[in-house]
Amino acid sequence: MPSPMTTSPLDAFLQRPNIEASPAWELINGRAQQKPMPTLFHSRLQRNLVNTIDRQSEAYEAIQELRCIVPPFSPVSDIAVVKTDRLPDADEPLQGPPDWLVEIRSPDQNILDLQHKILHCLDQGTQLAWLIDIQRQQVWVWQDRELPIVYSGADVLPTLGNILELTVEAAIAMTQRR
Q1: pLDDT tens per residue, the chain (178 residues)?
Q2: In a domain, 61, yes or no
Q3: What one-character-per-residue DSSP string does 28-78 give?
Q4: Where is the signal peptide (predicted)?
């Protein structure tokens, strides 16, 4: 007698009807969790950083809230920066991790959960990750599989390709730019 087909937790999660509700749902560590609703400063920083990156590069595209399939996770980064030749032609999630991911920490967000998501994506091929903490005016940066470096003030943040030179001060100032 054939055994019944089993559905993986990731497949079951992706079949849920509400995962694209706002804010989006993610599957991290086998647990479905809804992202926090972004604050005004979070939203401004996200928008302005996407626009800044996109103006400076044709090789990469910065996308807000793009679902990625990185088994067994399904993260939705605040910003996913992806080489344009990796983007799907269909309106669907990105298969695999972004080349560069940016997370903006919300005040009530668990930093360990964010780091776990980042580390999983780095382990699966993400080359660069930023974790921006607006309140502390710091950016934690991971490159490849190295330990993170904390940047602040006039420190110039690393990027991919020939994308902008941006300091932490300039990034944090984007929270005030309309």
Answers
A1: 444 567 899 999 999 998 988 899 999 989 999 999 999 999 999 999 999 999 998 899 999 999 999 999 999 999 999 999 999 999 999 999 999 999 999 988 888 889 999 999 999 999 999 999 999 999 999 997 789 999 999 999 999 988 878 999 999 999 998 8
A2: yes
A3: ETTEEEEPPPP-HHHHHHHHHHHHHHHHH-SSEEEEET-BEEBTTBB-B-S
A4: none
DSSP class per residue in 112-168: HHHHHHHHHHHHTT--EEEEEETTTTEEEEEETTSPPEEEETTPEEP-STT---EEH
Sign (positive or negative) of CA dihedral 77, 82, 84, 86: negative
Phi then psi for residue 138, to 5 deg, are -135, 155
**Tokens for 116?**
């776990």
Q: Is residue 30, in this structure, part of any structural domain at all?
A: yes
Domain assignment present for residue 135? The answer is yes
Q: Tell me, yes or no, if the pTM score tops 0.70.
A: yes
Question: Which residue range forms the structural domain that includes residue 142?
Answer: 26-173
Q: Give the number of domains in the chain.
A: 1
Pairing of β 25-28 and β 31-34: antiparallel
Residue 13 lies in a domain: no
What span, in angstroms and rounded, lies between the C-alpha atoms of 27 and 10? 7
